[in-house]
Each structure stands twice: as C-alpha cells, then as structure tokens.
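> tool_call: predict_assembly(chains=two)
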Amino acid sequence: GEDVEQSLFLSVREGDSSVINCTYTDSSSTYLYWYKQEPGAGLQLLTYIFSNMDMKQDQRLTVLLNKKDKHLSLRIADTQTGDSAIYFCAEALYGGYNKLIFGAGTRLAVHP
Amino acid sequence: GAVVSQHPSWVICKSGTSVKIECRSLDFQATTMFWYRQFPKQSLMLMATSNEGSKATYEQGVEKDKFLINHASLTLSTLTVTSAHPEDSSFYICSASIQRDNNEQFFGPGTRLTVL
C-alpha cells in the first residue's frame, strides 16, 4: 500500500545544516513535496521535485531524490531559529486527482 | 500567490450539533479541493476529494453521511460535520489545487473543532 515514513524529531544547532529524511513505497509517484507547518497553522509548500529528477536546489534548500531506494531528503543550510517547525514530506500519486500521501512529519528544533 | 482561506478558524460546539466549515480559494479557481484531518502531533489524513459540481470521493473509513462535502463553485467547498461527537474533535485542513505543472495543493490555515 501507500506509505510515507519520516523520523519524528531532529535537533540542530543554529547555523548548522539540517537533513530531514523520508522514505516512500509507491513507485508511481509523480511529484514529491516538502511542506512546513508552524504551530496552529496550515501547511506551507517549501519545495517539490519531479520524480525524474535527482536533485533540486532552491536557496538554502536542497532536495535529493533516490528513486531506486525511494528515499527523499531535505537539507536546510545555515539553519535558523525561524526554521523550527514540523516538516512533512508528501508524494503525489499518479492518476486520479493527484492525491497526496503525507508522512507523519519531522519536528525540527533549532537551538542556539 | 494562491491563497486559501477557511472559516471559522476555530469552533466549539455541543455534542449532537452540526458544524459547517468553509474553504475558499481567494484569488484563483480551484479545479479540485481536498479535505484533511490532523490529530495532535500526527500527519494529515486525506478524508475526501471533491470537484466542483460532482460528488466527493471519500477515502476508505470516512463516513460520507457524517462528513458532508459540498463543492458548489470553483472557489468554495464546505465540510459539514453532522451530529458531532467528542471523537470528531480535530484540526481540519482544506487544500485547493490548480491544474498546472506540479499539481500543487494550496492549503488553508485549518479549523480547530472541539466538541464538548
């Protein structure tokens, strides 16, 4: 079945890089997304990658996709306290209305 | 950018009453809208997918008679929780999608429902 898994918690020092990992099971996914959720708020799209790409860089964010291993990662360079939030990876499945399957979310805590 | 609003942002109701939550795409026409439910410290679970003018498609395990979805226009979808019970208390989030390259979903800010 469709499943997306993430580690639940990550703590980093301000200024360091953060790497959040995600694995998925469905090989028919078209796009893979990273969303950020701050407390009590909705989801904000950070970045996305098409399934035929290996890497995408967008300012401080780098997304790596290993399609063979069904592994997705998000690297945040120079992590700031404002980056503290929950990060969800999600895959869009081929067909239908591009239903999104979300991981459980990784809580990123940035400390001085 | 594409903005999605939800109303109300929070609601408290008595057990047995019905609650309606609105989801609006403010500056674009959404071909599809989605309704999610999020429990504390958990992921979003898709409840249903709706397209304007047609019946919603519900995910397995979601009671369509309890969670009524109406998608009356390309900018408005409503979710009505009928005969709400305390176990329906949750954070409900909608999203709206435009048919374009990355099929991005734009999320509303969520509605926190507490049933007493």
